[in-house]
Structure formats: structure tokens, C-alpha cells
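To whoever picks this up:

The nightly regression suite flagged Glycosyltransferase family 87 protein as changed. Nothing in the input moved, so I suspect the structure step. Input below, exactly as stored in the fixture:
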Amino acid sequence: MTPGGGVPEAGHEHPTLDDPLVASLSESVGGPVGEHAGRHPWWTPVRVLLAITALVLALGLVQKTSCYADSWQDGEARYTHMCYSDLPYLYTGRGFAELEWPYGDDAEVRSRYPVMEYPVLISYWAWGTGWATHWLSGSPDITPRYAVGTDRLNTVDGVLAESRTYVAVNAVGLAALTLLAVWLLAGVHRRRPWDAALVAASPALLLTAWVNWDLLALVFVAGALWAWSRDRPVLTGVMVGLGIAAKLYPLLLLGPLLVICLRDRRLVDLGRVVTAAAVTWLVVDLPGFVSGPEQWAHFWTFNSDRGADLGSLWLVLDQATDGATTASAVNLWSLVVLAAWCAGVLALGLLAPETPRFAQLAFLVLVGFLLVNKVYSPQYVLWLLPLAALARPRWRDHLVWQGTEIFYFAMVWWYLGGDLEPTAGGDAGLYWAAIVLRVLGELYLAAIVIRDVLKPWHDPVRRTEAGLSRQLVVSRS
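Regenerated output under the current build:
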């Protein structure tokens, strides 16, 4: 038995027999696996996937080496070397270097530090890893830090070293959660554990894993997909609720579940999911709300008041019109376009010849959300990764899509570093092009998923479930 799939390895759909690109690449090492190929007694698919994940995450840390070496103090290198991370700056910028609770309402603390602009679970995690950092640093006396302005906190002895330790502590914790996420994804489709390799070996994961805390939400999305595949609606709701407490976007998972439950007449299960999600979210949010209602509400007001920001189509429009857009207008039109997009996904789900899979509908809804969002940070690709891997498990399509994400990843840092400014002045047109290309990459993958929903015989997962010939899958995908 395999840890993630729960079925004998012989029942697995091998990628060299299922994915045309993998099959063609395998020719350089002897071709697709044969019927009598031996099975390694220890290296099961899930263990291989976990090893790949660990390697990719480690390479992601290597990619941040130049910034780590100077504690992210070189303002130019963090952009030119594309090794920027929010974590060391938030360690000193949100009070964790002084062990401040993110939802404290002490007037002196609030005048010294801005309130955390993240949902509660990320704030708890950031605070908890701050305590772990202090303990690993020998529990230094923080009293002298109160006499220094926050803009000069890095000049205090030991703080820069702590900021590096803080990144390392978060990297270890988030890596453990990512390994759990890959394990869960490998078990969603029992005969297709290798689909999780699209997350484990993702170039986007390597580049963006350590920019912020977005991996925290990824594990709960993976957990929701796993729990639903096991017909456990209450656990699905718990995972969704935890995801919403970490990032708002897992709330969108409830829409696809509504479509599936309507088609399959599982409204009781839907009620269990929604109830469990609501209760879980309330319980997790309660400590933050009770200790500081105003600070707890900051996340909601912050996102409502912000205008067009990095990575969004709204930013292109705003810069092209010399700042003519307003936060209220962007809020309104974002909701209008998202509502229309979701209505389209609803119609697609209800009219499809077969009930679409959870990951397919969830991916489509999330694409719509990101396309109209006011900010589209480079690490938001992590939101899509687990859903895309299960919605369209084909390497060719993922490489096309992630190629546009990687191009954007380079452009956004060079844009922030001022390297894309035209010598004659004006707007950074190459950055606009990167934003548009990224959108086109997502729409490409979304179009393929829509085709799979409308024509299920194109869907690799449906083919496996239907027991069709492996050679037929390779020849017609």
C-alpha cells in the first residue's frame, strides 16, 4: 500500500504512459515504463514526490542566498537578484522583534507599529515564529529596542541576525506544511498520485515559496480537496474554514461545491461543509477579535481602501489613464466582473455533460478572482498550483502557463528596482506586457479546463476513472 494513494503501486497510472510530454521525454532514458518493470521496495510514488518537494524548496532557499547573506539590506540586490521576501521586513516592521501580539490594542504599541494586514491565521503564525526566533536566538533582552525608532531597529545588536533566523524558522515550518500538502494531493485521485508532481516540481514553487506566507493557505486547500475526495464533508468544511482564516480566497471553494451538490443532490453534505467552515473560521478568529476588534477588522478595511496595485490589470489601466481610477470604482467593477465570471462557471457546471470535478470548477473560479483582483503579487501563483495540478494534470499546459508566471516574476522585481524605466521617461511598457502575458497564460489554462469540462473524454482524470487504455490516453491527449 502507498501512503498517499491507498492502493497498490501496480494500480497507479504511470506518467510515462499517461502524459504525452513525459512519454516523449522518457525516450532518452529507455522509453515509457513497461508492464514488467520492477517496483522499488521503498521509493513509492509518494516518497519520490516528497523528496522532489524538499529538493525544490531547498533550491528556492538557494535562490534567496544573496539576500540572506546581507540580511535583505541591499535595496538594489533584492530586486536585481529577484530574491526579495516580505518576512525579514515584517519581523521588524510589525513588532515581532519585540514580541508584540498582532492584535494588541495598547496605544503605545499601535503608535509604534502598523497593524498586521493579513488574516488571523497568518498573523498567529507570524507571531508564533517570532517567539521561536527569540528562543533560538538565546532569548535576548528586548528592552533596549524600545528606545530606538522602528526605522533604525536593524541597527540594534542582534536584530539583523534574528531576522535571518526568522526567515529560516518560517522556511522550516512552511516546508513541513508543503510536504503535507503534496502528500494530500497525491491521495486525491487514488490511481494518479503523480499528478501532485505538478506542485512538487513546480518552477513557480521554487521561485515564490518564500516571498510571503501564502503556503500556509495552500495546505488547507489541499486538505479540502483530499477530504472531499474521501466523502468527508465536515472535514472539508474545517479545511475551508482554516483556509479562509489564513487567506480569504479559499472562501471561493464553496461555490464549486454548491454546483457539485446541486447536480448530485447532496445538499445535506453542502450544509455540513458550510456549517463546519463557518464554525471553524469563527473559532480561529475569536482570539484576535476578542483581544483587539479594531485591529482584527484592519484586514478588511485595508483591502477595501487600497487602490490598483502591483500585478493587476487595474494597475495597467490606472497608469495608462494617469491615475484616473479610484479604489471605490475598482471595488465596484471587480465585484461586477467577478459575479459575471462566477455566473458563467455556474452555468458551465450545471450544463456540463457530466458533473465537473471539484478542482476544475475551483480553479476556474479562482482564476476569475485573480484576474479582477486589485493586487496580484507574484506569489499568488501558489494559490492556483494545487487546483491547477488536479484540474489539468498535463505538463505541457503547466509549462506554458508557468512560463508566463516566471516571466512576470522577473519583470516585477526589475520594475520595482527601476530597471524597466524607459531612458526617455514614461511608463514601463514591458511591465504592462508582463502583466498581460501572465493573464493570457491563465486564460490559456482556463480554456483547456473548460474544454475538459464540456468534453470529458479530453480529461485525463476522467479517462483513468473510466479505465480507458493507457495508450489511448497518450495518443489522444
